[in-house]
Design goal:
It is a single chain. The chain folds into 2 domains: 156 residues, NAD(P)-binding Rossmann-like Domain (Rossmann fold, 3-Layer(aba) Sandwich); 164 residues, Dihydrodipicolinate Reductase, domain 2. Helices cover 27% and strands 22% of the residues. The protein has a 7-stranded mixed β-sheet with strand order 8-9-7-10-13-12-11. Strands 3-2-1-4-5-6 form a 6-stranded parallel β-sheet, covered by helices on one side. Helix 6 packs parallel to helix 8. The radius of gyration is 19 Å and the shape is globular. Bound molecules: NADPH dihydro-nicotinamide-adenine-dinucleotide phosphate (NDP) and N-acetyl-L-glutamyl 5-phosphate. Its main location: cytoplasm.
Length: 342
């Protein structure tokens, strides 16, 4: 084993997914697991599926317990990563699954999250133009939000190829694990089962500025995004239906060609064969974003559907993919494109 890792927030969903992936990683050893209120408990009590790690004790999450590692994965509530990272030297790679360092626009941060902006770290989505190279020398990484991962992979190729106008509409369904482990009134079993519900409607969801940031960078100018998230009765997965106004003269063939070119060499972004549409069940547990494109000629819109596992490509898998790059390891190490079905 080449690198020693600590995982903070190991009793939560994102921390659990990072541990699931690291447990099969040939070059990263899980040295330390930490938690908040559950510090002192056995990991097995909170992550019973991680059998080989069941006997590990959850330590407190402090700079002391996290220091001395090659890589620290933070899967903690927003606001925790800045103060912790400040006490970990640059010899430690810090990979933050929280939102604190994803946005470059401090005003957008204050509007959607409130409080002072903690600063911007290299953004952990290697598939975006220029990002892979930046990640190779990073010592701090901001893992993208789960919805922005799906939406950016869905629409960046259309903007980068100059095929879309800056007018985007996204409706995306997420499984309940996206909301974390803590109980919330709208996530009680009987409220979720047998129903799909919208939330964060009307441009207020905090992932909107992150989508705007990524799509505007690809478009080379400001893009507006109308984003409506919905909660679906499933534990994992995001299905994002993304549309953008098509530029005049765009053809279906040119659109498909842009996506084939963009993702030809990407290990974790797959354009499906024509006629096959992404479904969350096709990529559960895999680090792959599945995509399909169409041109709605009557409406004059580019339509892209993306499916990811919110906990894998949308968090834990994306975190390990970027960490691999920053540690000088092969990007795909420890990650799978093989899903779990049914
Ligand atoms: N779930 C998802 O799909 C995604 C999550 N993320 C991000 O990952 C992070 C974790 O999310 P998620 O795993 O879903 O949340 P969970 O609620 O499932 O887990 C939160 C974790 O943080 C720990 N924690 C809470 N408060 C403190 C504290 N004050 N000090 C130390 N540890 C604390 C908890 O420990 P304990 O149990 O001991 O209290 C637990 O291990 C968040 O920033 C989230 O935004 C990002 C993308 C997608
Ligand atoms: C279904 C659900 O509630 N999903 C979460 C987003 C997922 C997430 O964890 O995003 P952050 O990393 O930015 O917190 C939400 O809509 O708030």
């Amino acid at each position: 084993m080449g690198f020693r890792a600590a995982v903070a927030g190991a009793s939560g969903y994102a921390g659990g997914e990072i541990l699931r992936i690291l447990a099969g990683h040939p070059e990263i050893e899980i040295a330390t697991v930490t938690a908040g209120s559950n510090a002192g408990a056995l990991l097995g009590a909170h992550q019973p599926h991680l059998r080989s790690l069941a006997g590990r004790t959850l330590a407190e999450t402090t700079p002391d317990t996290l220091s001395g590692h090659d890589v620290v994965f933070l899967a903690l509530p927003h606001g925790q990563s800045g103060p912790l990272a400040a006490q970990l030297g640059d010899d430690t790679l810090v990979v933050d699954c929280g939102a604190d360092h994803r946005l470059a626009d401090a005003a957008a941060w204050e509007r959607f999250y409130g409080g002072e902006h903690a600063g911007t770290w290299p953004y952990g989505l290697p598939e975006l133009p220029g990002h892979r190279e930046a990640l190779r020398s990073a010592r701090r990484i901001a893992v993208p939000g789960c919805y922005p991962t799906a939406v950016s992979l869905a629409l960046v190729p259309a903007f980068a190829a100059g095929l879309a106008e800056p007018d985007v509409v996204v409706v995306a369904a997420s499984g309940t694990s996206g909301a974390g482990r803590a109980a919330k009134p709208n996530l009680i079993g009987s409220e979720v089962m047998g129903s799909v519900s919208a939330y964060g409607v009307g441009g207020v969801h905090r992932h909107t500025p992150e989508m705007v940031q990524n799509l505007s960078a690809a478009a080379g100018g400001p893009v507006t995004v109308s984003f409506t998230p919905t909660l679906a009765p499933m534990s994992r997965g995001i299905l994002a239906t993304c549309t953008a106004k098509a530029r005049p003269g765009v053809t279906a063939a040119a659109l498909r060609d842009a996506y084939e070119t963009a993702y030809a060499d990407e290990p974790f972004a797959d354009l499906l064969p024509e006629g096959q549409w992404p479904a969350t069940a096709m990529t559960l547990g895999a680090n792959t974003a599945l995509l399909q494109v169409a041109l709605d000629e009557a409406a004059g819109r580019v339509v892209v559907v993306a499916a990811i596992d919110n906990l894998t490509k949308g968090t834990g898998g994306g975190a390990v993919q970027s960490a691999n790059l920053a540690l000088g390891l092969p990007e795909e190490l420890g990650l799978t494109t093989i899903g779990v079905s049914p």
